[in-house]
């Protein structure tokens, strides 16, 4: 059994910053690419960012590029999402995700999901 647990969500004003973290447990994730997806009410779950276990190469959705930064610790078992210059359109439940693949950018490629953490940006 693999568990991904997100934390750090909450309320933040537009233009502010928020940081999320995701801790993996149950097995070693040193060779897992990890990332973040988000889903707003009535909307499809969408890709936000990912970081590869191979070389720490990162990918970002166009909507967050330049504002969000993904990173992971040396053990590669915890992933972070630094959210800067947030806007109301960033309001969603944010999900941590992991895959054994080198690249992660679609929901179909996800092997494991976290439970999600709510991020709400006030206008």
Describe the structure.
This protein is an all-beta fold and 123 residues long. The protein is built from no helices and eleven strands. The chain has strands spanning 3-7, 10-13, 18-25, 33-39, 46-51, 58-60, 68-72, 78-83, 92-99, 112-113, 117-122. Strands 2, 4, 5, 6, 9, 10 and 11 form a seven-stranded mixed sheet that branches. A four-stranded antiparallel sheet has the order 1-3-8-7, with no helix packed on it. It is globular and about 40 Å long. The relative contact order is 0.32. The mean pLDDT is 92.
In a nutshell, what does this entry contain?
This protein is mostly beta strands and 123 residues long. It has no helices and eleven strands.
Q: Distance between termini?
A: 40 Å
Q: Please state roughly what percent of the residues sit in beta strands, choosing from under 5%, 5-15%, 15-25%, 25-35%, 35-45% or over 45%.
A: over 45%
The helical percent reads under 10%
What's the pLDDT, averaged over the residues?
92
The low-confidence runs, each spanning 5 or more residues with pLDDT under 50, are none
Helical/strand content category: mainly beta
The major beta sheet can be summarized as: 7 strands, mixed
Instruction: Report the radius of gyration as a whole number of Å.
Output: 13 Å
What gross morphology would you assign?
globular
The secondary-structure element order is: EEEEEEEEEEE
Distinct helical segment count: 0
């Amino acid at each position: 059994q693999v568990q991904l647990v997100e934390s750090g969500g909450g309320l933040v004003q537009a233009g502010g910053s928020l940081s999320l973290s995701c801790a993996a447990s149950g097995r070693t994730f040193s060779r897992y690419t990890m990332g973040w997806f988000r889903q707003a009410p009535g909307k499809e779950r969408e890709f936000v960012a990912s970081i590869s276990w191979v070389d720490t190469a990162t990918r970002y959705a166009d909507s967050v590029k330049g504002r969000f930064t993904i990173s992971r610790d040396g053990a590669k078992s915890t992933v972070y999402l630094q959210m800067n210059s947030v806007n109301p359109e960033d309001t969603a439940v944010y999900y941590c995700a992991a895959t054994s693949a080198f690249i992660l950018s679609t929901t179909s490629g996800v092997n494991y999901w976290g439970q999600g953490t709510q991020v709400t940006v006030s206008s």
